[in-house]
Request: fold
Amino acid sequence: MKKGFIIAFLFLSSVCKGQQEIDDIVLCCFYKTIQTTDTVENRFTEDLMRLEVGRVASSFYSDRLALRDSLRKERLKNGQAGNTQGMPKGVSTYRVYQNYPKGKLSFFNSLVGKHNNFYYESDFVGQKWKIGTERKEVMGYTCQQATCTYSGREYIAWFSSEIPIPKGPHVFHGLPGLILEVADTKGHYRFEAVGLEKAGITGKIVYKNKDYVKIPRKDYLKIEREFIADPISFVNQYSGVKISGLSTDKERKESGFKMDAYLPLELED
Amino acid sequence: MRCVVGLICLLLLGGNEALFAQHYTGMVLDKETGRPIDAASVYLLSADSLIVSYTYTDSQGRFNLPDADASLLSFSSLGYKTFLVAKSEFTNDQSILLQPTDIQLREVEVTTNRLYETGDTLIYNVSGFKLPQDRNIADVLRKLPGITVAENGQIQYQGEAINRFYIEGLDLLGDKYNLASSNLKADYVKEIQVLQDHQPVKTLRGVQFSEQAALNLVLTEDAKAKWLAGVDLGLGAAPFLWNNRVLATVFKKNAQNLSMYKNDNTGSAIASELTSLRVEDLAYLQLLPKESQGVFRPEQWNSPPLDLHRYLFNKSHLFTTNQLFRTSEESDVRIQFSYLNNRLENKKNTEWNYFMADSVLSISEQIDEHEMQNDLEGFLVFTQNKADFFLKNKLSMRARLRKKDRTLYTNQNLIAEKYKTPDYYLRNEFHLVKPVGGNTWNLQSIIQTDCLPQHLEFTPGLYAGFLNLDFNYSGLRQNADIKEFLSHQLLSFNHQLKKLKMTYEMGAKADRRRLSSYLSVANTSDVDWRSSEFANTTRLDEYSVYFSPQLRFQQNKLSLNAVLKMAYYRFDPYKENLFALQPRITLTYMFTNWWDMRFRFSEDRRPFSLENMYTNYLFTNYRKVERSTGWFSPSKNRDYVWTTAYRNPVKGYFIQGGVTYQEIEKNGLNDLMYDGLLQKKQTVRHDYQQRNLQAMLNTSKSFATLNTRLFLDLHWMKSKAGQLSDGKFLRFTNQSYTLETKAIIQPSKWFNAEYKLYWSAFELKMKDFLSSSTNYFRHNLSLNILPSKAWQFNINPVYYHGDAGCVSNLFVDAYASYRWKNNELILSASHIGSNGTYEHHSFNSLTETVTSHKTRPMQILIKYAFNL
Reply:
């Protein structure tokens, strides 16, 4: 009973703090990610993501955004205000924890402003991969091809059994080696490993849920879709900022807003 | 029975294959500790080292791998040596022991540039947001998420005014950016960049946080580096109408220019394009002196709740030229000049009821008003913006020559009133920022001089008794000259104390104001009006020094911002001293990400204005005369504001509510006395407290059906105030209610509609004597039909109705537009159904009015726009 209380207390205090170390980092893999935002004019955003692989869990987030946060904190510590001018710019605001909590996948994202920070947890079940026979080299590692269909998109992945970890970027995992490259067949999303380092002894995976509201995955996907389809009315509705202007999804599409291309990675519930 | 046996046999046979298919099972353990290894890879390798089947171990180290066409079984996990075994040598339920080893990985250095993009820039592609009906860039801005364009043209990003409006990275227009946003064609702009948290002063970047964003327009290749001209020609009836514009622009790397001539007599308020919009932060704006309004008040009434273009009879010409030269990479010179010639006409009839202790004074006025405005304005700005040094000097000048002639029938008596209210000012603003040691020092200086030599004339001669004349005279002229000189110097620096962010400000201000007023009355050359009780020579010199520490603190869900301004004032020649503490505290608490609450308290001491200081009579219009006792009566205002907001994106609604309580304490009050038509206002010593309570609620909800959005805003206010009437203190209560609701539906690309309802009610109560109220409605419907990219149709009916007895109005505006290449032809009809007058019933303190305004008749305009 007493132990239960202590555990409950530890749990609560860590929750209140909103930040906890959940695993030792074994290795770090960096991915260049490309997300197409406009297929007609071929516009895309690019970011550098970091996959921290632990003994049990892993975390995946924008390295640029993290670097920017730490620079900001550094400036604050030095008595400077939190100005972000001249700092690196990360565009990917999401963070994925694989196998944390145990047996779960946690997906965090902040859509617009502080009020739209959400996360969901889903079962940590690997994609149903089909192993192929093709091989290629990524960063000098021999990789083998695997394919899967996940949440409405088809993906081609390249994993290396030389790095025997069943993890990968974003939500992808479950191959007998680290996924070094994965892209959907339409070319809207692409993750490509560009760096690999062994972590020092002190590296820890940090789980942060402060200021995030937990919602079911289907609610999250609904909100994300709503945000991407019509950011104007999204901001209108949920931030109290009034914006005039009319546009339907269809109208926006036809007047040049390429919402068919700018779709979330996860298309289906 | 036979069937059942057969089925069982079939099932057994079918299951046989699965039953006897080869599965490899076992456990993978750490060789040194004997502990199971979680998530170790177990796979089958073909002869050419391809993985053909795989699995990985569970937390107990167990695995179960189906057989496939392969020769080797492989067991691997990071930090262990890979173990290979031939299929034939593996026996099920065997434990595989893996030898721990150092992680053998070839590290790969990241070569991608981590500094991908600098700053917090949001880039909007104009072609993605522009709709066919959008003409100028402000139309597009209205559609961008997070951006609002207010009625006066001010652009806000996430509720906060922008602090710079750049075109191709250069600040050509300063606070006159409305000239560009209202006139620059959306087709010229490729991208709109929102520079979030933009600190325009380079040396303050990383030192002083800015919550304001800046906008930068990136032009299309066609619009860059060459002169562009656009011409709009518009003609119509009735009467003869014109609306024309010639715009010329050039945006080069080292020089930019925007010049324009515009004219109009269709009722559009083109003068508002010259409005100075806020670009500096609020703290800086507080340093700027309040614009002196002069003493004359020809009209003391708020404008009616009717769109200005329905009752504005104007003949306006506007010319502006704005030039910027870059003198080096980090410095530029900007010259701006504008001239406005505006003739305005206004016709209205007003019934006034002034409530007194036990009676009501009624006055009726028929007013025919002609106003002439000749406004000249110019700026010369030099800016040097380096990483370690910032200097800006802005010299502004303005001359406004304004005249207003009014012909009135007041209670059937003809009165002619003429105002001549020129005003001139010259202002220099200097700003220097220099980092010294660890601190950044900020020096700001404002010097301004104003001059308002104004006068009022009216005929025939009125109030002979009041003026101590025992004969009738033909007319009166009231002169009032105001001169002001202001100097304000401010030094500030920031530093941080652990979690507290501190800012200290020190300032010194000298404000010297002079008012001299006198009367001249026709046929009274023998009276020395300059030394009578109708002449004032008032001087008020205010000197103040202040120190204002500001503290900001934030932890978890709580944030605090507190300022305590300590100011010492000295007023000469009255030898009055005042020490004032002006605190302001804001507390914000976020319960959850969706629910927050904010509380603000502030106390403010408002010292005196020159207008309260003259002790002899001064006519402010033909039937109002004022004087003060010359006593100092600083007022004390206390505000308590509580707001809370909840937003739920899952359910799709937003709700915000708040309550404000305000206390105003004064020891001087206006006493109103009526002598026939003449209202005499005198400030007298009287302890007085006014209390206002208001509550508001804003909510919105979206529905997927027909892409509908609904908005509802409610506002209620109750005010307990008082006024002196002929020495008697009258207490009264005002209550007002407003309701605004809006529905937008967008069922398809070619059709969208918006309906707005606005209702406002007001109630005035005075115990045992008076209880009166008024209300009005406005319904607004807008229908847009866009059958193709070339054609557009819009119809916009507006219906106003108010109290019983007031005339209702219906106005319908409609237009059709056709576009081809760089040309556009617009045919518009406005004010269809106008009956020529609009009636409005309203209250202000203890005054009631019913006004009927002359409105514009139906008009038709044909407009052709093209680019050269």
